[in-house]
């Protein structure tokens, strides 16, 4: 996807995440959207730096880079949430774009993409971006809603209640 697509994805995703984490729709919701939205949007733009430095869709489009950004806050104490932007960039390039990305670069140069993707210049690119974002939010909603239930159920079984 192009820059506009990645920004659209990051902004919509952040708004959705804000409401999933703070569903009231009040000031706390807005603060969460801003707190997540800025680093997620910056993170979503980062992988395409490899259009200028390195091999595009390879150098900064792989799982080791994602792991590095997940670990970064624990090691250096900043850049929280940036990994979400990196992850959603990968998801959009894999699911929404025809070409795919080299997930296992530099070990394996093969680019992986889902066959449903459209070309970056397609007139359906924006629709595809919104659809992928919606899918991501459904997945997060399932995790946010279901995980506590599974935990509760597991706890209930463990104590035999
Ligand atoms: Zn990309």
UniProtKB/TrEMBL annotation:
Molecular-function GO term, any one: hydrolase activity
Protein name listed in UniProt: Metal-dependent hydrolase
Bilayer-crossing regions: 5-21, 27-47, 59-76, 125-147
Key words of the record: Hydrolase, Membrane, Transmembrane, Transmembrane helix
InterPro entries registered for this protein in UniProt: YdjM-like
Domain of life, per lineage: Archaea
